[in-house]
Amino acid sequence: MKFVLMLICSICLVPLAMAQDLEIEEDGEVQTGEIIIEKDRKIVLPQARKLYEKVNSPEYEIEAATFPGEFKIFNYSPATQLPTLRAAQPKLEGTQDDVYNHYVKVGFGNYSSPMLVADMNLITNQSRIFRLNLDHLSFGKGAKDGKNSGSAYTNAGINGKIIGESITFSTGVNYSITNDYFYGYQPGLEVDRSDIKHKYDFINALVGIEDNDQDNLVDYSLSVSYESVKDNYAASESGVEIGAGFNYAKTIFIDNEAILTKYKQTSFDLSRSFFRINPYYRIEAGEATIDAGFSFTAISGGVETFGSSTIFPFARASYSISEQVNLFANLDGGMSFNSYADYARENPYLMDDLAVLSSRINYDFKAGAAIKPAQQFALTAYVQLQSIKNMGYYQNMLPDTTTFEVAYIPGNTSVVEFGSKMQFDINSDNQIGLNAAILSYSSKDVTDFYNLPTSRVELIGNHKIMDKLSIGWQFNLLGGIKGLASNGLTTGNETTTSMSAITEFNLNLDYQINDRIGAFLRFDNILNKNYERFYNYPMRGLQVKAGVSFRF
Prior knowledge:
Elements: H1 2-11, E1 102-109, E2 113-125, E3 128-139, E4 151-163, E5 167-181, E6 197-211, E7 218-231, E8 236-248, E9 252-264, E10 269-285, E11 288-300, E12 309-320, E13 325-336, H2 340-346, E14 359-374, E15 377-396, E16 404-427, E17 430-443, E18 455-464, E19 469-479, E20 482-485, E21 495-498, E22 502-512, E23 517-524, E24 543-551
Antiparallel strand pairs: 1-2, 1-24, 2-3, 3-4, 4-5, 5-6, 6-7, 7-8, 8-9, 9-10, 10-11, 11-12, 12-13, 13-14, 14-15, 15-16, 16-17, 17-18, 18-19, 19-22, 20-21, 22-23, 23-24
């Protein structure tokens, strides 16, 4: 409760102007000509955090070249393998009758895999934007014991944004269901499919408001989000997250975050909370920009062995050597709040009575350079150094390795990451993007960091071959992963095994038959490897899907 009071006090710095009525354009007609649903108008609900990842303030980077297709950081989903390639839809110019705001894509593939993508956009004018989306992908069977390794994912959401002269109001509701099976059992073991089913229900809701009056000296934002997750056993978690931001004359900044959750399992019921306030002052001198302040974080309700609050210096700096080269550096630290929802999204094979603990970031330092030698090319390279207490990783349970626990390292773990990001618009019809990183982990407490990759590469491209034909491709690499092996009968015989690197190549062909109808052919995992993201869980080989798309 004290954390909530602290947040309320800090939010009081947000001006009362937030209570103003929205001033909306009265013109309710859709204008003729080109209508584009910009990506930044889409409501994005809170995303899952990684096991050791805290929410960092964005570093200064030169803006990358515009990438028209979907360019997502590779975050491999073993449960659903959702398509990450979606060809950019051509822009249509002309009269009102030529504009299509709705898009439906249906298809079917091997492994008995139907798919559906539907986006319905309602634009009453440029100030009112509403979107309804529905996605489904399922596999009737997988790489092991047929239906026992099937999976399904369904997501439905509605969101909207109302843009006024002074403030912007955003809202969204999202519901998703995942169905998976604990098929990581020992070969030859007979199981009942109904006994190994694992289902998750996720609900997200978000309401946000932000100032968009460029003439005001004061800028502010406030968001409230709700999230709940429940499985078909006894696990459930629900929580509320409140975020607020404030700045005066782009010189004095205050960022706030508070999280309250209720986590239930078979043998316990736990209430947890997290609070963070990050005030800082910005100094601009020539080509240099420096932010200096502190981060105060606090947690309660958990069983962590370290202190309940921390205060750490916060610093962020950038320096423009030229119009093409920018150097940046960040320093931060504090508590990192982990939730059951975070883990459930990343690993669908979790054990009962899973321990959920927070981590402490002793320090988080990141430095690098952003280079943009031409309008069509942008490159960012960085190094990140972290020291984390109570860092978690996924480890197979023993002796039965079918399920996973989150093992926490009690001491400090050093994480070093070298990474780069690149986007290259060769021309308006050909674009290439790269996201790569090399990671290392070290700790006095453990020698093997199970299921954590040490290398990650995503290379993606979109090419328009002719007026109606587009090709998208993606190469993913995830390497250096180790698993904990056991005979599944007794403890004491477990061994560490190095898992084969995930090397995945996907290809997508889109052909626009006419303005309204298109056809697609998609190939996933062309190399046809039954790789494992989590030990004992082989993934599907070559997947082929074909279907049609409609715009109206």
